Structure formats: structure tokens, C-alpha cells
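**Folding the chain**
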Amino acid sequence: MRNAVQGLWRLCRAAARAARDVAADPAHAAELAGRSLSLLRSQDLGVALGLRSTSYAEWIRRFEPGPEELRLRLQRLSRRPRITVVVPSRTDAARTVASVRAQIYGEWQLLVAGDNLGRLERLTEIATGELVAVVDPSAELAPHALLELAETLVLRPDAELLTCDEDRRDSRGLRTEPCFKPRLDVDLLQARDYVSHFAPSAPRS
């Protein structure tokens, strides 16, 4: 029962945030509503409300968008802001770079820096994107990661810092240890690495 109440509270908070988003940006109200309805249709409310447990693999299968949904979301973008991805160059950065090149959203700029901090700072200064995302060279981006950022930037062009959910891969290459982050939470920000391996932010003026 407690899980169900907590789940219902999370849904109520999400609904309240959606209402605030629509009020703050009425020009994109239809797009916000469409995304919310699409998410609700895809979700198993028993899991969302905590009435039924599920493995992370099952969660991925049920809730992560498929190719057709992502294609439609890409088509619905009213504009396509450029996103600059900066990867510090190390011997283990190959998978990170490959995951950037595999993005379904194509309006990106990739800058690969050395380990020298000064070079990294210079690259962020010459970035041409509306967002600059420094990616840890051990990280691997989901194929729709930049699309998610672009959608958010279209709805919130004044955004200065975005955070992303994340998980890890185990020794078998399976995705584990998900970390689902809420909107800005000061307590959580002080308690753990909230920005972590992927930190999209507005470029310096």
C-alpha cells in the first residue's frame, strides 16, 4: 500500500510539473500534451504506482521509446538546435565517440579534446551549439540522448543546465543500476553527483 501511495504521489507531482510547463510556455502546449499522452499510453500503471515490481530489463522494454516513436518525435520538432558534444580524449573514448555518431538526432558538433584542461576549456569556447555537453570518455550515450536534449531546448530555450538519467553496464554488457533523476532537487544535488558523466549546459556568453 505504501508503494502505491508513493507511486500515486509521484504521478501527481509529474502532472503538476506538466501543468506548470504548459502555463509557462502556452505556445508549445499541444506538443507538451502530446508527449505526455504518448508516455501515459506506453506505461504500465501497475508498475508506475508500485503495485507490481519489475526488473530493469523489463522497464527498458516497456518504457523506453522504440524506433517508430523516435522517428515521429524527430519529425515533430519545430526547430533543430545544434548541440556540441565535447569528449576528453583518452584511450577508452572510442565507444563514447561512436555513441555520439550513432545518434538519431543529427544536428550535433563533436569536439574531441586531450586530457589537458586548458585545451578542453578552449574547445568549449569555440563550440557552436546552443548546448555544450561535456561527456565523460567512459560514458556511452543512448541513441536518442541528443534528441531528448533538443526537445527540451525547444520547449525551454532559456535552459542553462540539463541533467540526464543514467545507468551502468555490468561485466556481461547488460544495463544495470539505473539512476532516475528528478527535476532540480537541492538536497539530492548536495548528497550525490547529480551532473555526473554527461553535463549539457548553455555556452558561456
